[in-house]
Structures are given as C-alpha cells and as structure tokens.
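User: Structure please.
Assistant: Input sequence and predicted structure:
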Amino acid sequence: MKSGLMALVLLLLVSGLGGVAERARAADEFDGMRENRKVMLTGGPSLNTADADIAAALTKLGNEASGYWQTMNTSPARTYLWSDNPGIGNSIHIRVTYERLKTMALAYATTGTALHENSQLGSDIAAALDYMYTTRYHEAVTPTASGTSNWWDWQIGIPLQLNDITVLLYDSLTPAEVTNYMTAVERFSPAVTLTGANRTWKAMVVGERGILVKDGTKVAAARDGLSSVFNYTLSGDGFYRDGSFIQHNNIPYTGGYGIDLLLAVSDLMGMLHGSSWQVSDPKQSNVWEWVYNAYQPVMYKGAIMDMVRGREISRNYSQDHDAGHRVMQGILNLSRIAPPAQAGDFKQMLKGWMLSDTFKSFYEDAPVPAIALAKSINSDPAVVPSAELLVYKQFAAMDRAVQHRPGYSFGLAMYSSRISSYEAINSENAKAWYTSAGMTSLYNSDLGQYSDGYWPTVDNYRLPGTTVLSQTSSGSHTSTRQWTGGTDMQNLYGVSGMELKYGDHDLSARKSWFMFDDEIVALGAGISSTDNIAVETIVENRKLNTAGSNTLTVNGEVQPATLGGASTLKQVEWAHLSGSTAGADTGYYFPQTVSLAAKREARTGNWKQINPRPVTPSTPITRNYMTLWLDHGVNPSNGEYQYVLLPGKTAAQVAAYAVAPDIEVLANSSSVQAVKETKLGIIGANFWEDGASSADLITVNKKAAVMTREAGDTLELSVSDPTQAGTGVIEVELDRSASGYTADSGVTVTQLSPTIRLTVNVSAAKGKTFKVSFDLGSGTPPTLPGEEVIVDNNDTTGVLKTGSWKTAAVQTDRYGVNYLHDDNSGKGSKSITFTPDLPATATYSVYMMWPQHFNRSTAIPLEVVHSGGTATLNIDQTANGGAWNLIGTYSFTAGTSGSVTIRNNGTTGYVAADAVRWVRNP
C-alpha cells in the first residue's frame, strides 16, 4: 500500500467515525482509496466549523437533508419514499430519490452538521437503500425505453449517487448490503464505454465501485478508460488541440458536458492519487493544458460564457456564474494533484476569479470541501491572484472566438456545416434559435448581465450580432456553408467571419468581426432574402438596471428614458448606452450614418417557457432591455452594414472617436471584407471567394482569413483557411519587400522582393492559423520560383515503397493529408525512397518533415543519394515534428538521379515517412 493512503486510513481510524458501531475491516489500499473519496465528499474530520462560510454551508446541507428526512415515507408498508417521485421503472424518479438519499448521507457523514452521525438518520437511510434495492434498482431490472426511462439515469446518474452513498455509509452497512448495491451497479455499468463526458462518468462509476468491492481489475479499467479522453480528437466528441470541446457530435459544450467531464476526471484522478492505481498515462498532461486552453479563455470573473453551454442556458439553477463556479470546483480538485507549476497557476486563476466575482460568492453554492480548499488558497499570501487575462483565441473546431481586453471580454458564437446552430433536446432550450448565428456577448463590470433571469426575458428573436428575419424563429440545423472561422495577430487581436445561411429560410449574409485593442468592428455584406419578411441586424440587446433608466445618447442628444418607448433614429453617427455599473458603458460608432431602430422595454417571461420540464419554475420574471437594430427591409438584395462597438467608453469618448476614428473600412462586399486599425498598424481581411482578391497590401488566390501588422521594420502575417476544406496551398502576396523572415511549418516563402510572395499549406489544417514575421527592407528571394521541390508520401510519382507501410492521418504535425508508418513491425524489411525531379544542377538544402511522437524511433537511418555519392545519417522522430528539419546540403544533378531513402533497419519504435523538401541555394 502507498504510504500516503495508509497514513490517511490510520488517521481516520484513530479519529473514529462515531455514531454507529464500526466493524473491524482490513485497512488495505482499497480502504485507503475509499476513505480518500469520503474526505473528498465531506471535507474530512478537521473542518473549521467556526468559519462563517463553512458554517453556513453546513447549516444549508443540514437543513436540506432534514427537509428530505422529515418528508421521507418510513412506513413498513410504503410503496415509495417520496410522494412526488413514486414511479417504479421511472428512471428520473429513481435518480432523484438517490440524489436526496445522498444529501442525507452527506449530512450524516459531514463533521459540523446538526445531523452528523445521527443514529436514527443512519438507520433510516440504510433502510431506504434496502427498499430501493428491493423495489427499484437491482440486477434483475430490465428498463423499458420511454419518456420516463432514460439510459443515462440507469447507467450513470443513479450509480454515481449510489456509489457515493455507499462510501459515506460504508461502516454502517453490512457486507451483504454493499454487495447487493454494487451488484446492481455492475448490472448497468460493467465497463467503461461511450465518449466525452459520458465516458468519464462511466469511468467514475466503474472505478468507485471497484474500490468498494476491492476489485483491482475494475479500478485499473476505470483508470485506463480515461486514456482515450486524454487524447485530442480530430472529429466528433472531445477536446481539440485549439481548446474546443464538442459533445453530441457538433455542439460546443465546454460549459456544459465539458464541466461534467472536468469534474469526473478530477474526481477519479484525485480518488486514485497516491495509490497503486494512480493515473500514469503521460497524456494526463493534456488535462492541465485543458485548463489553460479550453476553460480559462471562456471564463470571466467567475462566470463561464453562455456561448459554450449548449442547452444548459435554459436551466434556472445553472446560470453563468453557477456554471462557472463548477468549473472552479474542478480546477480546485486538479490543484491538489497537478505538478507544482501547474498547481500554482491554477491557484492563482482561482483566487483571481473568486476575488473578482462580486456578483455571486463562490462560497454561496460550493460544496463544503470546495469551500474549505478555496479558503486555504484565498488565505495564502504566497498565492497572488492572476492578472486580468489578455488574449484572443480562435476556437476553430467549435466555431467560437473570444477576446479578453482590459475591462471587458467579447464572445462570438457562429455555426457552419460542421457545427450546429443550437441544441434543443429533452424539452430544453426552446428559444435558442439564434444563439450561434453570430451572437455576440459583451462581458464587463455588469457581472449579472447574463444571469438574473436573462434568458427567459430577453427578446430571443433579437440577439446582439445576429442578422435575422424579424420575429421569426429558426429550427436547429447545420449550415450548407463551410466558411466560418478566422485568424489572430499576436494572440491579442483577431478577425472572424461566418457565411450565414439558414436551413429553413432563404436569408443569407457574409458577416465579419474585427477585434482590435478597444473596439470591435462588425461588417455585413451580401444580405439577401426572398422570405417576404423584414430583415434585421441586431446591434445591441442589453439588460438595463431595475428602473430601466440607463441613459441612451445619440449624436450627443439624450433620448427619452420611458419604458415602452420605440423609435427610429435618423442619421445616426454614434450612440452611447450608460451601463448599470461603473465601467459598463458601451459606445456605438457607425462609419456610414444609419437609421437606427431603438426600443426600451420591460419584458416578462419565465423559465418554463424555455425549459418546460416538470422541475422548472413558472414564476414570472420582469427585466428591462434596450434593443438597437438596423432594418434592411423586406427581401433585401446585397444589403450591408457597418458598426463599431466601443466597450467601456464614456459618451464624450465615443463622440471624440466618431470625429477621429482609429479604424478604416477598406472593403465591405460579398467578396472581401477588410478593416485597418490605424493606431495598431493592423489590417484584417476576410476573403470569401476563390480567385485573386486584394485588400490594401494583401493579395490571395483562395478563400482565407488574413491579418497583417506593421510596426517599425517588422511585418507580421497570419493566415488561415476558415472553410477547413482547402487542399493544397493558399498563395499570398504582400506589397512590401523584406530582407529576412521566420515562418511556421507549412509556410514556404518564395520571394522577398520586390514584393513578398509565399504559400501556406492548409491541407487538413482544421482552421489553424499560420504565422510569418518579416524583416522589412530590400531582399532577394531565398529561392527562385520553381526551384523548390517537395515530394510527399501521398504523391503519385517520386515515391517508392518497399514492404508494407500503413497510412495514417491522426497527427496534425505533418505535411499534406496523411503520412506513412511502419507499424513498428518488419524491422529491416521496409524502406521508402523519395525521388525529386530537380529543375537544375545545383547545390540544394534537403529538409525532411515528420509527425513526432514519443513512440517513434530515436535513430532512424537515412540515405541521401547526391551527385557526389551517398550520405548516411540518423534522425530522431520523437521531437521536432511538423517542421522542415535540415538533413544536409548537397550537390545534385538536374533530373531524377538524386533521392532520400528512409529505412526501418535496426530501429526500436515506430518509423514515419512523410515528406522531403529540396531547396536550391542561391
């Protein structure tokens, strides 16, 4: 047994659990893991019950448990435990019953509650468990699919509760009772299956049951079941390398199922930590990466952005701060087991979020153990709260983008042929029609903007950023269009775009957003419809203060603040809406004067209207809103719009900006949309069509998102393929000269003067951004056009294979659409020869690209045949993947007499063959 777990077991045995007669049980490693899980659930015997927040949580837990206990039917002749959940075969009723029993068991087992180790409560819970096993949940049950019988309850929801209850009451249950309950769990969840969050729940069920029945094989299966979750995916459910998280195949769900996955993974890893079954898969390092790349970018001062929460935005009990606090609970769990550097970062993040969330205290709704751990972090002077996050992040795999700037954060939700417009299943999310149709979310000091009843009261037909048919709903669908995505500059600024085409309307448009240092420019073009309904672009729909009196100023004139007022304001150049809190003002600048529709209203709705499940309240809620929109009329053809959001600016600052704006719209058509930010020296451009197209200094030959930045003698370039369908290269020309450059793998610079020319290989790039930095000045080409030759494994000529090689495309740090590997077999019998057709007799630098992996060989033999003979050398494929690695410089004769051969002779580990590049030296 590991010493840490033994010490924990001994400590708990010495302190005693009290209240019931304890049975002597062997303190083996399974007992240690079980006691570890109990401490994770209760906080252990050393809780500081004098702390006001912990005491409040204990009282809340005790009161909730007492309420359930007092209403539980304890009659010997009972046919249910609670009258509101009486169903036999009704999985929802059974799950809710176990959830209530778990609350009672938590109150019984948690130090400091009024019910701690109450013998009568313990007896009543034990009797209730026997009753449920006999009548509701046992190994002989055969569920029948229906509206009241859900597979998730039987396989996941119920056993999660039952396992925890058994842990909490283990020392007051007989071995036969434990066996019975665990046999029932085995009946429904014998193995780790499924994907995404569902898989991690399954792993937790199997692992915790394995601990309870002392089955090491099951515990190992649970641990190993996480390995496929650790992997980054290229399609379907799971985490992507860009930080995206998908569930249900095409729904962005970082803030829904992604939270459940985080909690389940951190629970299981924490439960096994320090034991012989501790997670040892090196890919667990991806879990730490998720915190930085997936969760932190979509958090704002303790809330998680609604654009990644799917249908959960319609749940009254899980608004953005509630969900954000659950993310924090998962990261708290990880902070106990992560390597020191990551654990330190996580604690700083958590402290920053807890201190900045003035809308809702983390302690208000967190479990007791989480409060205790959070208290230890907040009271530690060595933990410095994280500074305000400054970043732009493109989540290409889930059609989302986010920018964090001083004083605000901006979220953008889009959809495409890859990502659905929204999810509305299980009677949830009834009015989410436009939540991915270019919906923009502005987070600032008004921390309750998207909480406090936003979703049941907002006008769901008019969400900010969207272009819609007036007061017309839209069904859930994926688009027929691929162009959705963008690129970034310096990981601080970005451009995104979406080719909008509704599945049940004729309305279409091309929409772009340019996110700079203190402004967001929104452009729309090609707005066309034959639906015979007015088309609107929604500039704003902001929740106001309780009086609805936030000041709206237009062109310097304060507008009436009467609720119920609606008007169309003519010749609008700028507008300003005062915030409900200091720092929450928003300005609006219109590069071309517009007629702006404005509506100030009190709106009443209820949660039941968007989530009609039985548990949802129907209490009316009234909130006040200001809505601003542009009316494109009925059946527009090639309509357009331009507006600029100015977060945090006062009315005077917006007026000054309108006189001397920092942006210039370079193009706004259905072929290209481009904007220049003059102070930053940045140009952003979205090119919507294949074929030569230009914006300022940029010319491309295919659909692309492009950004440039000129500062001093440096020119930076970023390029992506937002369609994620491009093959081959995007050709880029910049109207500048350069003397040198550094470039990402996949970028080939072919000319530095008189203009810069390059190609970007976007095959299978999945929307990835490629970057180049140029030193401006006179220069000569590194190679002349036509004097670089690349031979790829997938080419139809120039590749000679000996032996059996397997084709793979799992790794993205490759050249082209795929690569070959030897399957770690047939050593000494396999080789691949890459033969170029060189245009001239000259000296060439020879480069090779491969996808790196820890399972690759570190000494792979190469042979380079050149005009002076044959050179032999070895390469290491465990590093430097996705880059052109210099093999050497040799003289070659024009034609096909030269070659590079890679062999698997004498290798230990996999050998990959991808591509070889010959570059003529000047």
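The two ends are 66 Å apart (CA to CA).
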